[in-house]
UniProtKB/TrEMBL annotation:
Keywords: Leucine-rich repeat, Membrane, Repeat, Signal, Transmembrane, Transmembrane helix. InterPro entries: Leu-rich_rpt, Leu-rich_rpt_typical-subtyp, LRR_dom_sf, LRR_TM_domain-containing. It is found in: Membrane. Its main location: membrane. The chain crosses the membrane at residues 176-197. It holds the Pfam family LRR_1. The keyword Cell membrane does not apply. The keyword Transit peptide does not apply. This is Leucine-rich repeat-containing protein 3B. Belongs to the LRRC3 family. It is a single-pass membrane protein. One of its GO terms (cellular component) is plasma membrane.
Amino acid sequence: SAAAFPKGCYPSEEEGLKTFRCSNARLTEVPRDIPNDTNKLYLDSNRIPFLPRDAFQDLPLLLELDLSHNVISSVESGAFRGLAENLHSLDLSSNRLVSVSKDTFSNLKAKVNLSDNPWLCDCRLQELIRTVDLAAGSSGGIMCDSSTQEEHVGKAFLQVIADTDFCNVYKKTTDIAMLVTMFGWFAMVISYLVYYVRQNQEDARRHLEYLKSLPSKQRRSEESSTISTVV
């Protein structure tokens, strides 16, 4: 019943499709009592900060999902589970997304709008862009708000990756870090061996000086004992 819907939400029928509108309804989470035969869902212009796992699992007939103009900064893996077969339009523009795992959109066939978010341009975003099917005309709005390379800030991400492979740079950095670590361990081992040899040499020198300081008979006995021990 209409009384069960959140304030500002209402169902309607548009062009033969069952629509549920919650635009500008001051929502802080995805409503739970959305009719499960909804084809188009509008949750735009609200205050939703987070999309949890299985947020839309009870909407198997959903074709269009508009989540634009919210404050979404985190999308849990599995948030769109259950929508893979029918969903053909997903709008996440004008939110606060900085970094999202590529697995979040796995198996989705929908055209996705990711423009106007404060993206961190790095390997993770590069892998995400290669995974999703971007909505027409939205790619230019994916800008580098921050980046692993300062010179890319303020530029369109697709323009940046035309010349820069973030994932390859990351791999090289990781390889260098591993080499530095291995060299550090190797240097420690060599230092220890050098210290050990020098310490033994010092002990041997002291022992010889001690033997020289003994009376000749006792010294011969000590030397004989030392040689016997060595043998």
